[in-house]
Write a structure and sequence with these properties.
The protein has 5 helices and 7 strands. By secondary structure, the protein is of the alpha+beta class.
């Protein structure tokens, strides 16, 4: 560890309370990976758990919002262009937690209970999201 930073093999991380380390580009890459992970979900599981929804992912420490759409065909690539209508499911997360969540290093349920991820969605949407992640 140097100056509170620790190298984990792929990127630097900082101790809790320090400045964010994941960049906007790393967040874009994480969301692209999430889209690819959704492509791996079977058609049967998608039919069972997916309802068409618009999504927003606010990365609070970088002050950026990504927008996407979930459908039976999968998860559309995220963009930074705001859609005309508000998102059905709104997530707020830090940059490091977004990367950790997509990499499987952070459990969604624990992150929700610990306040690290905030979701503004119906209870049904929240249950569906948990089953898909």
């Amino acid at each position: 560890m140097v100056n509170g930073e620790k190298y984990t093999g792929e990127r630097f991380t900082r101790e809790k309370g320090s400045a964010p380390m994941a960049s906007v580009e790393e967040c874009r890459a994480a969301l692209a990976k999430l889209v690819a992970q959704f492509d791996e979900i079977s058609d049967e599981d998608r039919a069972k758990h997916v309802v068409e929804r618009t999504l927003s992912c606010r990365v609070a420490d970088l002050d950026v919002v990504f927008y996407g759409r979930l459908s039976h065909d999968g998860l559309d690539p995220f963009t930074e262009q705001e859609p005309p209508e508000p998102a059905d499911v709104k997530l707020t997360i830090s940059s490091d937690d977004l990367v950790a969540l997509v990499e499987g290093e952070l459990d969604l349920a624990r992150a929700l209970l610990g306040g690290r991820v905030k979701v503004d969605a119906s209870f049904g949407d929240l249950l569906r999201l948990r089953k898909l992640l």
